[in-house]
């Protein structure tokens, strides 16, 4: 007798995504100790996947595709139209190679150096300020790092405006009303700006560094040997700087983790292996991307559930990073768990899972880790500050979430 896979009965659960936030899938699958659960979102049957087995299925290219899966309001803001996230098969592999080609050891070392240099410059400015909001300041700091690394020219006075727009893409994508509209306008402004830079590069009016993201996106040829449409090239270049700026969220969570686990601030000061463990635990423990979406390519059975061709599937990233079948004491912050960790590519999934080249796993995991390394290392070795009274709690209902105060420091000193 086949087991009946549990379902949400009756009504549509779109609203529950807002109510349950990061725990929307986890609340349903983990309650039943299963990897699959059926619900209804926007009037359609959706299969929710979680856990290592769920991740494996989600990244099976024979059974899942991405084109058509992304809700339009996310495409219009966070990702933009025509980017690598929406491609499948050969065209995805070809475009993905473009991103992977940026991740050379020299490129990553350069990124680490740029990040340290900006931390030094920014903290000298912070010393003269009464109070510093780490989230707001790191948005600017990382905009400078991102543009410099990608080879995009940016004037000093434009940094606050561009960094706010890059953050609007992230914050407005899951909202409705004014915040969503602000995100749409931000995308419009950013694409126009980057399109004009790409135009100048193609016309020979701006010289680029070979191997830089700007150069590679401007001159990348698709499978027919044609240059990318200017708008698509802009979307892909923004696909490099937007997530680099988004690392600001991990920096704030890391600063909170330092406060709650001061012994780890000491440890990473002198030990690179501890620094690596701390970074992995920040990425596992704190909420960032809640879930991903795909569509099934055919009818098939999996764990006694019948998937229908064209059905929407959502993968639980936050819940998988907190799955008690994978992680001991998943809701405790314990960097030491990563000392001898030898997990599969389907377990630790803050930036997606599976294979980089053939699947959609984030090509920016190494750059993310490099930026976090440079930042946490700088913070633990050179930064002293005092903390005024503030609310560092964060809500799992809000997507994307962040400690409420943004982490405010006073009497900052770069020693
Ligand atoms: C994809 C998270 C940093 C570029 C993704 C995905 C997630 C993610 C969840 C989706 C994976 C999938 O669809 O299967 C993050 C987080 C970051 C981060 C939390 C750090 C805060 C970066 C950086 C870059 C980057 C630094 C570039 C330098 C991309 C691109 C994709 C992607 C281009 C699409 C890949 C594809 O569709 O094949 N990221 N990312 N990300 N990320 Fe990141």
From TrEMBL:
It comes from the Bacteria. This is Cytochrome P450. It comes from Rossellomorea vietnamensis. The lineage of its organism: Bacteria, Bacillati, Bacillota, Bacilli, Bacillales.
